Amino acid sequence: MSSVQRPSASASLDPNAEVDGSLSILPIDDIEPYDQNPRVGENPKYAEIRASMVANGMTSIITVTRRPGGLKYFPHSGGNTRLHIAKELAAAGDDRFARLRVMIKTWTSESVVLAAHLGENENRGDTSFWEKALGVHAFKVAYEKENPGRSMTGADLTRELKKQGTDFGVRMVQNFLFAVEDLAPIGPWLRASEVNLALRPRVGEYVELMQRFRQAPAAASTLKTQLEEAAAEMRSTEARNRERDESERRPVLLDVERVLLRISTSLADTLELSVERFRQMSSALAHDPLLQSKDLLSLPEPEAARASGAAAKSQPHQDSTPARAPESSRATAQRHGDAPAQRELGPMAGIVGGTSGHAASRPAPANPMAFEASAAADGASQSPAQRRQQLLNEVEAVITSINGVVPIHDFVLRVAEMPFGFMVDLPVSASHIGDADVSASAGMRIVVWQFLAALSGQAHDSHWRAVADLPFIRSTRWSQKLQEGPAAFAGHLVGQLQVACAPMNPEQTLFDVFVGAVPLWTMFGDAQLGPLSVRLLQLRRALQELEPEAHSALGAYLRFGE
């Protein structure tokens, strides 16, 4: 009886194919550093890692991969520093590193490997803002190359990176892209808060204004020149530091305000404007993107320019195709029904229903400081309850005026039970209110949020506990994130709003939300927000003096776990 020969089940398998997750031992020379590693500088823990490897050898395996057709392997998800040290020690004759135990990952795509490196570096927490920005931008380029015809927005990138296990938040991803695409010369010295709160919003404002006067090429050239000059100064300081003793070295910190002043001054010169006039126009355009060149030129001359005698020119220099306002200005068009009027923003429009004792809304005065004189006149004849209500009305009016400068109505809530009559919820998005795109004001929205959150009493444990169990308060995003615990709460504030916060004790039961120097400087330095923020502080003090028993004199950290 003849036997039937059956085909081998493994006949179609490639004997050289790699098995995903398999362990192997490779010669050190068969592994090279990842050529797109997001880390561009030396690992700050290099000396510490090297000392550990000299003492203990390679105590953990490196996960490696290789591109189709490639001969060499490289790290798949971090490990470049350990590989570099291992090569260094092997070259010095340490045979422990001549061959390395590795885990092999089969190749998927460049974007997946980039995301893995980003995630590993983020978990270690030792990469700079610029290195993260380069990595995210490289991921974008790789992903778009792998998906022809797909152009990735900040939201798209955030979503794809999150699928790979890394969540920077949309706002931070947008900051990363802006840094790489617009601020590259000074990239190595950038800090996240300065990009988010100063550089991105203000450079964006300046470029938008230049575009209104058809000077986009001049804006790009000026920006490049000024950033390169700033970078040259930073490199010069670093070079001088290398020649000094360590005790005499100077901090190499980017002076963001100086850079912005030089950019705005140069751009103002291009338009033949004073820098005060230029900044006035750029700020006005940021708050109302519908303004045209004719509207901007009709703005009253800023006080600073008049005081210095630097009168703005009646018409800025324009290129061969002059910028022309529409046949009717925006205001005229609205009067004739040719363009939709801007929606009026009501005071404290983000009210959560169900509260009791809420004051009736009323529009803010043209000058919020006008309240001061009437308050002084009326104070002596009012009862404490009447005086308190008047002060709360003024608080609401000033916040309404702030909303007229920066849209915040989606997160300001009227809460009569809070010491100053309001609190701020966590915004759903810094760059959008519903379907409306407010990305031009996103940085200032975060600045105002931090200021109001600190002022409202919601970050003060005793004041928060007094309202935390109210049904409408429990429905707020702020309350819900607090209930998730300090890690989730901090992760949201830092990841979504770039708000500094930290536990204040080893047990991580006491927590503080910080209002940093940059937000305060920005808030008080703004020509419109500065006086309004000062007025809010005055009203806060007046309420404390009126009813000291209702206002804690000392701060108290938010408390978790009790």
How would you characterize the overall build of this protein?
The protein is of the alpha+beta class and 562 residues long. It has three domains: 132 residues, Conserved hypothetical protein from pyrococcus furiosus pfu- 392566-001, ParB domain, CATH 3.90.1530.10; 125 residues, no CATH class; 190 residues, no CATH class. It contains 22 helices and eleven strands. The strands form four sheets. The chain has a four-stranded mixed beta sheet with strand order 1-4-2-3, with helices on one face. A three-stranded antiparallel beta sheet has the order 9-10-11. It has a two-stranded antiparallel ribbon with strand order 5-6. A hairpin with a 7-residue loop joins strand 5 and strand 6. Helix 16 packs across helix 21. The longest helix has 28 residues. The relative contact order is 0.07.
Question: What characteristics describe this protein?
Answer:
single chain; 562 residues; Conserved hypothetical protein from pyrococcus furiosus pfu- 392566-001, ParB domain; 3 domains; four-stranded mixed beta sheet; 22 helices; globular
Short description:
The protein has helices spanning 46-56, 80-91, 110-124, 129-146, 154-163, 170-182, 192-212, 216-243, 256-270, 275-287, 293-297, 303-308, 330-335, 370-379, 384-405, 442-456, 461-467, 471-474, 477-483, 486-497, 517-525, 529-546; strands spanning 22-27, 62-65, 74-75, 99-104, 412-414, 422-424, 432-433, 436-437, 501-503, 510-513, 558-559. By secondary structure, it is an alpha+beta fold.
Lay out the secondary structure.
Layout: E1 22-27, H1 46-56, E2 62-65, E3 74-75, H2 80-91, E4 99-104, H3 110-124, H4 129-146, H5 154-163, H6 170-182, H7 192-212, H8 216-243, H9 256-270, H10 275-287, H11 293-297, H12 303-308, H13 330-335, H14 370-379, H15 384-405, E5 412-414, E6 422-424, E7 432-433, E8 436-437, H16 442-456, H17 461-467, H18 471-474, H19 477-483, H20 486-497, E9 501-503, E10 510-513, H21 517-525, H22 529-546, E11 558-559
Parallel strand pairs: 2-4
Antiparallel strand pairs: 1-4, 2-3, 5-6, 7-8, 9-10, 10-11
Helix pairs in contact: 1-2, 3-4, 4-6, 5-6, 6-7, 7-8, 7-9, 7-10, 7-16, 8-9, 9-10, 14-15, 15-22, 16-21, 21-22
